[in-house]
Structures are given as C-alpha cells and as structure tokens.
Amino acid sequence: MAGFAGYDMPISYPSGALEEHAVTRRSVGLFDIDHMGQFEISGPWAESFVSRMVSARISDLKVPMSRYSLLLNEEGCVLDDLFVYRLPESWWIVVNASNREADLTWFRSKATGGVSIEDRSDETYMIAVQGPKAIQLLDAVGTVPASATERFGWCRTEIGGVPILFGRTGYTGEDGGELFFPAEKALFLWEYLLAKGSELGIETKAIGLAARDSLRFEAGMPLHGHEISTSINALEAGFKWACDFSKDFIGKAALEAIAARGLTRKLVGLEVSGGVPREGYEVANAQGRIVGSCVAGMFCPSVKKYAANAFVEPTLAVPGTALKVIIRGQPKDAVVVKRPLYIPAYRR
Amino acid sequence: MSVDAKARYAQSHEYARQEADLIVVGISDHAQDELGDIVFVELKEAGKRLEKGQVFGTIESVKAASDLYMPVSGSIAAVNEALQADPSLVNREPYSGGWMIKIRPDNAKDLETLLDAKAYASLVGEE
C-alpha cells in the first residue's frame, strides 16, 4: 500500500504489477480511481468560463462528448491535465487527485458572476474498466450498450441497478471506459464487475498503482508531476495539439511568447540498455555533457524494454539520437525513440 | 514464504549456501516477495574481490532499485548470466534458478556469522 493524495492505495494486488499490466493488455483491468476529483460547472457564463480556463477547444463539444485538455497558469505551465465532459446542463471536469484542492481554488479564483462551481468529488466514485474486452464486459452488464458510445463520448447507463455516467476514456491506451456513480455504491459495483467478469468468462482483475503507471507510460500518457507540472510548459511537453490558439485561454500569451523565443528543452522517449532508468537520472550526450534529465522511467512490460521520458536540449530531440542515461554513476546507452512505445491493437 | 533450511542468511535478506568450496548467494523468498516483480539484476563481474557488506550488485523491482550486499568476504567465482534474460527467476525460484553469485570465501567459517534458517525465519515472522 502507498499513500497517494490522502488515499491509501495498493501499489499492486497479490498477483503482482507485471501480471496486472498483462491482464489489462489482454482482457480487462479494473481500477479503483476514487481519488480523482470531479467538478461540475454550470450557469449562463459556464461555457465561456470553461473555455478560458482550459487549453483545448470546447466550443464544438456537444452532448455526449468529452475532451482531454490542460489547465495552464499564466506562464503557460501545467497546473493539471483534465477531461471536460459536455453534459446537457453543465460541464463535468475530471481532475487529478493530487491537484484537486489547488485546481478548485484556481477555478474559483477565476470565476465571475453567472458561473457556479461545485466540487462533486466526495459524492462521486470512479472506477475505470480498461482492456480489449472491457467494452464486451460493459455491454453485457449495462442497460445501455457501451459499444454504442464513441471514443471520448459518454452515456447514462445502469449497471446492477446503479446509475452510471459512462465515459469511453481511460489512462491505459486500451479501449474501455470510466464509470462515475454514487460513492456509496462503490464496493457493490466493484464486486459486481469482478463477479460478472468471472461469470461471463471474461478475465477481469483489480489493478494497482504500479501497473496503472506502466500502462499509461507505455501508451504515452503524461502523469502530472512528471511529464507535465507547474515548472513545465505545454509546448516543451509536446501538448501543442491540446491547445486551441484560435481562442482565448489562460496561458496562451505565454505560450505564444515561448514559441516565438524557441524551446529550451523538449520531452522525448528514451530506450535504455543495461539498466532501469528512473525519475531524476541525468541524461548525457555521447561526449558526456549533461543535456537533460529523466522525469519517469521503468521497465515496460508489453514492449519488454527499459525506457524513460526525459527533457533534453531541442537539437537532440530527434528519434535515433544516441544519448546516455547515468544509472548509479554509470553512463548507459540510450536512444531517442518515438512515443508512444505501445499502440493497442484497436488503434493499429 | 519459504526458507531454505540449508542456507544461512544476512540481516539484509541475502542467503548464502555452501556448495563444495563455494558459497551460492541470492535473496530470500521473503525478500523477493517484499520487492515484488523483479525487472533487472545487475551484478559485478566474476573475479572481483569484495568485503562482507560491500555491494555486489543491484536488483530492480517494478518500483525501486535495491543494493545487494556480500554476506561474506571473498571473490566472485561466478555470476548467474541467466538473470540478464529472465530476472523473474529471482521471483519464481529464489533458492535455485534465481541464484545471483558464487563466492570463493576468504574464510569458510565466516558463514557461521550469519543467521541460521531458524533465526532468519523468526526474523521475517515465518515461524
């Protein structure tokens, strides 16, 4: 178990992190992610407010759609990454646990009249159902077929009598979805999904934090505090695609100035031989000069490689560039690779 | 978790088992279970002489790296090359296929300074 943003969370269940990772890639992984925060924003000025707060375009978001976005500060650095759901009467914002309080304060500090911001985190539970057979499982147990919902779409459904907001999203690279529902039904729904998986012959297992991290890492998704943070701007982290420069948003001016000046570093993937790269390890060029550092690194179970994400000087951020990662004082061979390392079957 | 009755143990969870004139070293079943899935093992080369307590390698689990300590002083006579290709041997069979190094001890009697199987079992609550 590990403390995470005030929650006690399992690093792995008894089957171990590698097996949990593998189950999610071959069948279904169940993730207890109640630690995620949810805000509901409504009112006559809600749309223009949300649009100014988040980097992505939301003006074209219609019911029942959702979109990934960044929450930036005035410097263009990343306060958090989040999902914006367009509900009929409101905007449903899903944020990271460790940033929930700071995000809420940030949203409230920027709010004007005609905007209401409610923290729904405590009353809302969240379970993610991820893997190539996740939709099959959800189709079998839900009153509304999950397969009828497009990727990044959502629907209202019921599973085992529990009313659910289902979003076809996730943090593993696999197909599947995330379930939002009343917190008091959490244990019931968790056990119901495991039991139904077993009954239907769809292998379904509980997944801990370690596998959650390796799954998202292989799939090229950022973890706040690593690939993105309040000291990392959206452009150097490679998130220009999540910023709509045709609208006004907090951080836009700073990003335009950064783009005009040129980046001083860029996020890259590194494949490393002869050791496991970890957060904080330095990156050197072939001559031994330090040119950056790792923000995350691990053994990647599906691609069977040791890999890191690192910020390096922009001229080196080219796939094929030979670098070194310093592991316990020893420079180990590394090469810049394209991210993500893993692309699931349904997107190939 | 199992404890190999034929081995002796360091407080840092390495086992040391006499085989002919060498001492086979790895980590206990308890240690591999605590570490979780092992994804990398780095060992010093054969021929290297190290004192008891010096680092002979590093073992990397999914989440963290841990140093491995010489249970007795001596020179490394052999390293288990199979761990390069399959570090999970340490999880699956810590006392057999997951062995790490063989030490030619400076003094075979040093083994007696380590915990016996019963004392180690008691240390890790396996009695």
Describe it.
The complex is a heterodimer of chains A (348) and B (127). Helix content of chain A is 21%, strand content 33%. Chain A is of the alpha+beta class. In chain A, a hairpin with an 8-residue loop joins strand 11 and strand 12 (176-182). The longest helix of chain A is centred in the middle third of the chain and has 15 residues, at 186-200. Chain B is globular. In chain B, 17% of the residues lie in helices and 35% in strands. Chain B has one domain: Beta Barrel (OB fold (Dihydrolipoamide Acetyltransferase, E2P)). With 127 residues, chain B is of the alpha+beta class. In chain B, 42% of the residues are buried. Chain B contains four helices and nine strands; from the N terminus they run βββαβββββααβα. The chains are: A alpha+beta (348), B alpha+beta (127). The interface between A and B is medium-sized, with 16 and 12 residues.
Helices, strands, pairings?
The complex is a heterodimer of chains A (348) and B (127).
Chain A: E1 2-4, E2 7-9, H1 17-26, E3 28-32, E4 37-42, H2 46-53, E5 66-72, E6 78-86, E7 91-95, H3 100-110, E8 116-119, E9 124-130, H4 134-141, E10 154-159, E11 162-167, E12 176-182, H5 186-200, E13 204-206, H6 209-218, H7 252-261, E14 266-272, E15 282-284, E16 290-300, E17 305-312, E18 322-327, E19 330-337
Parallel strand pairs in A: 3-13
Antiparallel strand pairs in A: 1-2, 3-9, 4-7, 4-8, 5-6, 6-7, 9-12, 10-11, 11-12, 14-17, 14-19, 15-16, 15-18, 16-17, 18-19
Chain B: E1 8-9, E2 14-19, E3 22-27, H1 29-35, E4 38-43, E5 49-50, E6 55-61, E7 65-69, E8 74-79, H2 82-85, H3 89-92, E9 101-105, H4 117-123
Antiparallel strand pairs in B: 1-2, 2-3, 3-9, 4-6, 5-8, 6-7, 8-9
